[in-house]
Amino acid sequence: PLVNRDRIRLGPSDHIQIVFLLGEEATEGQSGITSTTSVTGGDFRSVAALLKGLRALGSGKVLDEVLHMVLDAALELSGADRAFIMLANADGKLEFKLGSTRGGVLLPGEEFRASQQIPERTYETGETQELADLLEQPELAKKHEGTLQFGIRGAICVPLKLMYFAEEAARAGQDSRIVGVLYLDRKGRGSLLSATSRQALETLATEATVAIENARLYRDSLEKARLEQELDFAAKMQQALAPPRQRTYDAYETAGSTLPCRAIGGDFLDYFVMSGGGLGLVLGDVVGKGPPAAILAASVHGMFEAQAEASASPSTIIR
């Protein structure tokens, strides 16, 4: 049973609480309760938007689809006008991936006019960068004149931080890695986010990073499967070009085989009758050199076959 001034906490933090009041305290504090209820209502909306976004992220596999979901959830959570995601490339440089407005209109990188200072700073430090209403802070506005010129009064940029498990952290020598940034801005006055909304946005960014990384891994696995399928086809073609395991001639028999060390074997083996009636044997070692060497070996196969009919000397054929 609840007693007077009991507090009900919702979730793991202390940001969202209900205070239970009885009797005179409830009457006297009614205006305060109304105010608290109003703030809590906003907090509820933030949490609801966060949970909706997290549910959506759980179903995403394709990278572009996941990026769409992240932007939609971040815009709904923050009430911002625009948002974009930048991801680090192989060289560690940020690349614009996707931008969107609150109405769902996609904005390509060349159309998304915003200051690069805030995303770069977020990526370098791994810390959230937030600009409150610039028109109400003259000193801060001087440092961000470019942002104001684009008509932006407030912005926030959250790092997309991938947290490592203990074993991975020990191996990498760090407990996390920044894979990109999530940027939001708006042209209206006032602060972009409340404390609870900011915390929810950072939680969303953390889970979004995992979803983005999973989508990348899923894409890589599909690409790997495609390459393996192509290599398997190439290996079958190469085996088809190899001579029979055994061949019988008038005066002798030949037997030989190759065994690839990987998907494609580069060993080159062939034998054929020379123009003078002698037996020609070709053996080459290109194992472990990858598909280019295997392709070259396949093309050389035809060259030897053609030269053997017109030449009597091995040195002439090889040259």
Task: Write a brief caption for the model.
The chain has ten helices and twelve strands.
Structure description:
- 46% of the residues lie in helices and 21% in strands.
- The protein has 319 residues and is α+β, with helices and mostly antiparallel strands.
- The strands form four sheets. Strands 5-4-3-8-7-6 form a six-stranded antiparallel sheet, sandwiched between helices. The chain has a two-stranded antiparallel ribbon with strand order 1-2. Strands 9-10 form a two-stranded antiparallel ribbon.
- Strand 4 and strand 5 form a beta hairpin.
- The protein starts with 5 loop residues before the first strand and ends with a helix.
- The model is unreliable at 30-41 (pLDDT under 50).
Provide key terms for this protein:
six-stranded antiparallel beta sheet; elongated; 319 residues; alpha+beta; single chain; two-stranded antiparallel sheet
